[in-house]
Design brief:
The structure holds 2 protein chains of 2 kinds. Chain A is mainly alpha-helical. Chain A has a single domain, classed as Serine Threonine Protein Phosphatase 5, Tetratricopeptide repeat. In chain A, 44% of the residues lie in helices and 8% in strands. Chain B is mainly β. Chain B has a domain of 112 residues. In chain B, helix 8 crosses helix 9. The longest helix of chain B has 17 residues. Chain B is elongated, with a radius of gyration of 35 Å. The chains are: A mainly alpha, B mainly beta. Strand 1 of chain A pairs antiparallel with strand 36 of chain B.
Chain lengths: 455, 1106
Amino acid sequence: CGDSFLEIEPQQSADVNNAIVDLPSMEAALNGTYSAMQSNSYYGRSFTLIPDLMADNAFISSQNAGRYLNFDAFVVQQNSGYVSGLWNQIYEVIANTNLMIQAGEKLTFEDEDNQEDANQLIGEAYTIRALAYFDLLRLFGQPYNFTADAGHMGVPVITTSGGEIINPGRDSVKKGYEQVVSDFTKALSLLNKEKNNGKISINAAKGLLARVHLYMENWQSAADLATEVIESGKFSLVSNEAFVESWATDFPAESIFEIVNTLVDNPSTNALSYFYHQKGYGDALATKELYQLYEAGDVRQKLIKVGEREDGEETAYLVYKYPRGSSREDNIRVIGLPEVYLIRAEASAELGNEAQAQEDVQTLIQRALPSAPDVTATGDALKELIQTERRKELAFEGHRLFDLNRRKMDVNIIRTNEVIVAKYPNDRFILPIPLRELDANSNNEGMVQNPGYDN
Amino acid sequence: FGQDIAYLYAQPQKGKPAQTQSLKEALAELEPKYNVSFIYKDKLSKINVNSPAEQEVSSLEKVLNSLLEPKGLVFEKVRKNFYIIRSKSELSAKKLKKIKASLKEETSKQPTENPKRLKRLDNVNLRIQQEQKVITGTVKDENGAALPGVNIMIKGSSQGTISDIDGKYKIQVGNKDVLVFSFIGYASQEVEVGSQKEISVTLLSDVKQLSEVLVVAYNTQSKASFTGSAVAIQNDKLEKAPRASFQESLQGNVAGVQSMSGSGQPGANPNVRIRGIGSITASSTPLYVVDGIPVVNGDISRIANSANTIAGINNNDIESVSILKDAAATSIYGSRGANGVILITTKSGKAGKTKFNANAQYGFSKITMADRNRPLNTAEMTELLIEGRVNAGKSPEDARDFILARVDTSVSTDWFDEITRTGKYQQYNLSASGGNEKTNFYTSLGYYEQEATIIGVDYQKLNAKVNLRHQASKKLNFNMGLAFNQQLLHTVSDEGSFANPVRAMYRLAPWNPVYNEDGSFNTGMNSTYNPVGIVAKNTKESKLYNALGNIGGRYEFADFLSFESKASLDFNFADEFQFDNPEFGAGRNDNGRGYAYTTKYVNWNVTNLLKFSHSIQGVHGINVTLGQEAQRIDKSTSNAYAINFIPNLETLDNASEYKDAASSKTASAIASYFVNAGYNFREKYYINGTFRRDGSSRFGRDVRYANFWSVGLAWNLHKENFLKPLDWINELKLRSSYGINGNQGIGNFASRGLYGTGNNYNGQPGFAYTQRENIGLTWEKNKSFNLGMDVGLWQRITASVEYYHRTTSDLLLDVPVSSTNGVTNYVDNVGEMVNKGWEITLNTENIKSQTPGGFNWNTSFNFTQNKNEITALQGDDPIIENGFIRKVGGDFYQHYRVGYAGVDPQTGDALWYTDGTKTETTNKYSEAERFEQGSALPKFYGGMTNTLSYKGFTLSVQLNYNWGNKVYDIWGIYTHSDGSRTLSSTGNMSRQIYERRWQKPGDITDIPKVVYSNKQSGRSSQSSTRFLYDGSFIRLRDITLSYQIPKNVINSLRLSDARVYVRGNNLFTYVKDDKLDRDPETTIAGQFDQLIPIAKQILFGIDLSF
């Protein structure tokens, strides 16, 4: 037997050192990254569900299978599998973008079109990395404005992967946001597709960066970027009549970036849509408060149906924003044009440009309810109105807890038979660093637990 | 030989010879006179010849000539003192040659007796003159079958005879003589002649003597010459066991071996560990070798909870199993020897009359210790919930109204009754063996069927086997074997799955009915997974096929040199299908889901051996084996998934929507060269050395090859002159070994940095980073030291005591790393672990009857004490995973959880220790720290078997014990919910809560108060020692009462043997921990995971031979 007898190559995987070598393999690596975002540990369920659940939009039915109960009850613990799932999954996304950027930037293409395609792909990777860090910071660190210099604890910022094993400590929130902004900026210099269904486009990157600036209270940058997206002309609000149906279709005109689920490729029974849909687990229900917040006739209210939770609540508010839940085909919207309008509205209100703010929020209100009166509120009332509209427009899209926390507001955690009023500031508005990470990471001084979760 | 020729030894005769006599008589007179033996055909014996009268001493040749010539007979000297008598025309030269060869063989078979006999022939005439008479008789074995070829000697003389084909003999003796009956494989028997005229004896097979020969790696060798540590288990411990695999019968029978599956699912794959846990991440499973072929072992199924390729072997086809434990025994298997080796030898044919064996068993099984946790009924649950509402601050009236308005108290389903059953069991086997000197065969057919005690779970097995051996020429022989088996498993989902009936049994609230009023299945509970309905309407079927074929040859160049070659193909195939019904459960939204899976393993192996064995004048013994081996295992899988089915049809052709299709391939290979050499001096001192060089495809190119070796020493003290006078010492042997072997039990490509495919997105192919590269990844090394002593006393007691110390270094460890690396784990050679301990095996014949059928009592006992200790880890950081802490100085399965401190007698609150000092308690779980809580590994374990027999009755009782381990109920956090799960359909509480909960101030108990919507305790995140129990137990593992049907009945039925018996398994268990609410047997990791419960069983059996 010669040495060749012992040379056996894997058939279902590629060697990491020569996996990314050309455009198709760059694209494959990027698809793998999107696929990781699709996971039920990230956009596929946990990340999109928890901000609504741990606030006043959604709660777990009394007839449930035990999932996310500790989030619903506001008693999350450091050994939670959902928490470690989020942490592990988002860092997996980051490592894949790192490897893709490392390998991709080494490749050069003589053909200009090819180089342009490569730039787009690398730009997508930068955008995804920026978004992933932004998401980690929102989950595990207090908001940017929590301290004056944002010097409070964030997450480790890692921009290269695949080498020696690392045991990083936590970086500040400030450093995290710097990386996020820098990655978006780099991405915008590379991206060249204006619209890219199911994937990152220039406008998706701009819209997400606008959101980041909103969190950082860089109001002017937020407003400017939002304006660029709105004026790109690539997206338009869905009409009142088509609104409900648009949530059952892929890539409606107002959607800027959504994670795609198909009949054969979805998180299966772990999908977000399956968790909301009554033909799935249907464990998560809308709160009565949210339902009643909509004016009669508001088309957005139609995404919540009044019915019965089998063996549970006799009157239940059933979420139909993900109406294809039984087949788990619903895409997960990461950013859409309505949010961009709301970003510009909020930033404009903060900048004192109230006319712009009123106009933008009115655009959404009257799209939902054409008979609604014009918006005339000013000052704090206007700011409050904008937040309420964010709640109504972006319900079940994974924003509510983050919005309340960055706006320094108390959170009413509505449950099946009780309301937990959690005052701002609150250690438990963010998640604990997973116990698994604390156990596996040997940097005991640097990788420390968030306050309020000691042990 | 044998068939038509009788041969006689010296039979001295006194008295007056007749004028004429038969040839036989005449020759009989000559034999003592000339110290010779004659061989002649039976039909010649009655020929009348003239008596050789009172002659002067004359040469034998002359006497013979005068006797034979007139009758047309001739004689021929075949060797010293042996003559053949034949008719002139008969007996060709060729046949004569053959007889000579046979005779030579016969002589060489009894090297110690024949020379002695011949030497003492001179003394014949000096024998005490006494009254002589002819004794006749028959020699039979325990089964009543005639034993031909038995040596019957007069004690203290060289005179004797051999029993003929019918076991009959005839010998001339005096009254004071003692006859010694001896035969290889049987205990010798001595009978005083006295006044008897007929002496018929039954020889008892001597298991001790049989076990003197051990099947070892690539060879067999005498136990006396073995320097390593190995245990041979004969088939009587394995065959006719109602267990699907022989591995289950190892439990409690062999020192140093643990075999536990923790599951009552028939055909489940047990964890077999030899001398402790050898590895952390890599496999700790021994290598299995069937008739010299390393086979695919373990679970190849993709949908069954557990399946076992080794269970495919029919226990009744096994001749013996050798368990190789130390380096001297296993290092010749190099990279696969670290966890021990289990050699299985299957039965082969025996020359002679074709013998048939048939056996049948039928029995029943039930869940053990079911009474420890009968689910609560509606009245009991309602009582708890109302009490819980009151404890939550409601008035008794409110509480009552609230609960009664929501619970249908007219329904009280006993989910235990709905989900469990009495499992039926049956097994039938038929085998035949026979052949002649040139060609022999063994063949068998088997059928096995067992239902689990949980609905929907059953197991069937079909076996067929042929072993053939053919002697092509004196120097060349061939052997070939073909075994085929099919295992069919119906399983249900396990662990935390909704579809798991075991979970449902303890979780479903009793007010959930099984059926709706219209008779359809109630799906308004448990997320629609009605456990009874799932079993009725879903399919989860695994068919495992195995074909094991081998062909081998052996060529003898000379007495001392031979070459063996063997090639084999081990083909394993799993064909599986799962159907989720369209009405409820997982398939309800898809109008039915179907999954088809196939998995194929093709394992081929080639071995070539050159064996040298020589003894120089019986003083210096040398043997050397040179070997080469190559093995390759290819695995391929495919699966398909479709939805939307035509009603009542399940194959994928009946589905309208294709969902998924996939296939995969992988392979691994090993190439090896090895040598084993041994030397002994007068069979007193032995030294043995082994070296093997292995290359494996699994490791990085630069570290692919490795060398393994061992050295063993043995000293047979009982052969020393200074011990010879102590004839009560039958054996006293010291042996020791040291060596290194390896472990390559990791993934096929664990050393590579990999991008895993299949991470597709939006219909486009994608791959993602799945495995960190580790080019230096290499063998895990196992350094093993063994010191053993074997003792045999008074022919009644044998004992072995062994001490071992094995160090596993360069542990193949799945090291958890910070997730910021993009992976959560990677495999590295990190750390070191030690297993050390004592093994004691003791066999005694407490009462030994001198006559067949008398009262006999044998005991065999074994004890194992193993201590596992991690001695080094990466950076010496503990690894905390799955409720265990792995740290330097600790053992591998050290439970690491929050310590439960019981209940505050005043408030009824659950209390936890704040830390490992156990000085402070808290009623807030979040303030409690985890600390070490004892090990899942037993301090000691073993078993004891007592066998009592009298007349035809035999009673065999096996106890096994397992002591000092801690077991954890993973799902206790759900079943002991203290009201936190309120009215959930899966919120049933345990009987412990009902019986022992705190109810009022002053109550001293360990179960907190029940509070509706409890936030203080009973939450699913509150893992603690509340659910950790002492796992110590002693179990009546096996009890068998059998009755041997008397000979006269058997003979009238034309049978050679018949036996009936009743056998029980797990009938009684003593559990040390009263609070443990289930059977204590669990997996090696000591965790209860809602697996199929352990069962007790009663069965009736019959064995027939003809």
